[in-house]
Amino acid sequence: MYDDLKYWYLRDHKLFKTLSFGDIKQLCIITGFKKAKKGEIIYFSASDVPRIFLLKKGNIKIVAVDEDGNESIKDIIQKGDLFGELGLESDNESNEYAKVLSDDVAICSFLLSDFEDLLLRNPNLALSYTKFVGLKMKRIKNSYSNLISKDAKTRLSLFLKDWAEREGVASGSTIVIENYLTQNDIAQIICTSRQTATQLLNEMESNGLISYNRKEIILKDIYKF
Amino acid sequence: MYDDLKYWYLRDHKLFKTLSFGDIKQLCIITGFKKAKKGEIIYFSASDVPRIFLLKKGNIKIVAVDEDGNESIKDIIQKGDLFGELGLESDNESNEYAKVLSDDVAICSFLLSDFEDLLLRNPNLALSYTKFVGLKMKRIKNSYSNLISKDAKTRLSLFLKDWAEREGVASGSTIVIENYLTQNDIAQIICTSRQTATQLLNEMESNGLISYNRKEIILKDIYKF
DNA sequence: TGGGTTTTGCAAGCTAGCGGACAAATAGCT
DNA sequence: AGCTATTTGTCCGCTAGCTTGCAAAACCCA
């Protein structure tokens, strides 16, 4: 019964659509499953055996701590996203943890080595997975070039637009986003200081572009972003 | 005979080490081969069928042109590197070209679709390739976090160190790099203005850290970087 | 309901580094 | 050798956005 649950959690991810019933069963045997509540911190990498994680429910942020102890947001992971050692190579230097942003989350995970075996036995999955990693790479490249050539205001606009497209609920050209990020989080994502982010958000609000509060962000007209 | 040449060009790339003789022959049938000289510009993507390229000899830079016509260096490709649609998904929006930096280059290429077939038939290659893409991604992530948290001077140091490790010829703690980049190129790679790059390089030279000219860069003591 | 914690708002000085301008040096070409 | 194009060196004004510092507002939970 519990195994069945895990089965379905994996089954409905698009990446695993191509797998046979047996293959998923196999992966399920070694699947871990975990729930956590808002604010909890989940450590991975480093100490533990390398794993791939699949976020089934909720949102988390991946935070990296550098040599000097500074924390920076590496990624925001949403329902359905894979995270962890996506490159299939364990890098021990990186010191990261995940923090739960939504009320609660459900995460499944499997060992990197087992996942590799699965890829070897399923060329189609391997190809899909490669494209998936490629897509992740393209995203990062895009953030990188934005950081180089666009100012903070533009980066904020682009981020809001992207966020709205990924998670927003539209009614006409107005989009409502459930806001589970603090202004500090947003600032880190668009690579600016908290103060600048605050200032820009207020500016957008007084220009009538958005309506902002701690619960939700409303983009009045998505076409203006 | 010409086919044999192409065979060897592919054969000695570490990614293709696991392939059987027959597999490579197969890939060779559809392999393109091309030579070019310094300063030449090679267009790819967009107009053409999507391809993966393998630089067999020399150096090139990948330059992207954005909507406003600004050019920016996306990547420096060296002997043995793959480039092109590495994510295996053709993106038409991107407008890029390659410019030859070394005296001459040799490039082989194969169609994306043929490469995909090959991956499907060779799970081991697929896995290696995924790791290779993952590694590329890790590099970009690293540049990104450098850009966020390090100043121009530090980024220049890190870049020189990295360059030296990849291509430099060491004698003791001194490393000599063949310099095929202009200061403008270097500036773009470390994401700063040409003026700042010039100033920083001269500063490092007068501090005795490096010795710079258009032909070569000598890092006096790699441990100081 | 009240006290502590986290988040947001606002002001002002400061600085890294951009960008324009121009001259000198070097490379490339015929 | 001479001419042109490219690259490098330098100076300097300007500004986006970082930092420091503090206060108000919202949230959390016992």
Could you explain how this protein is built, in words?
- Chains A, B: This is Crp/Fnr family transcriptional regulator.
- Chains A, B: Keywords: DNA-binding, Transcription, Transcription regulation.
- Chains A, B: One of its GO terms (molecular function) is DNA-binding transcription factor activity.
- Chains A, B: InterPro entries: cNMP-bd_dom, cNMP-bd_dom_sf, Env_Response_Regulators, HTH_CRP, RmlC-like_jellyroll, WH-like_DNA-bd_sf, WH_DNA-bd_sf.
- Chains A, B: Residues 15-125 form the Cyclic nucleotide-binding domain.
- The structure is a homodimer of 225-residue chains.
- Chain A has 225 residues and is α+β, with helices and mostly antiparallel strands.
- Chain A folds into two domains: 2-138, Sandwich (Jelly Rolls), CATH 2.60.120; 150-224, Arc Repressor Mutant, subunit A (Orthogonal Bundle), CATH 1.10.10.10.
- The first copy, chain A, is 41% helix and 28% strand.
- Chain A has seven helices and twelve strands.
- The first copy, chain A, has a four-stranded antiparallel β-sheet. In chain A, strands 2-7-4-5 form a four-stranded antiparallel β-sheet.
- In chain A, strand 9 (169-171) and strand 10 form a beta hairpin.
- In chain A, helix 1 (2-11) packs across helix 2, helix 3 packs across helix 4 and helix 6 (183-189) packs across helix 7.
- The longest helix of chain A is centred in the middle third of the chain and has 27 residues, at 123-149.
- Chain A starts with a helix and ends in a 6-residue tail after the last strand.
- In chain A, 27% of the residues are buried.
- The model of chain A has no long low-confidence stretch (mean pLDDT 87).
- At the A-B interface, helix 3 and helix 4 of A face helix 3 and helix 4 of B.
- Chain A binds a DNA duplex (30 and 30 nucleotides) through helix 7.
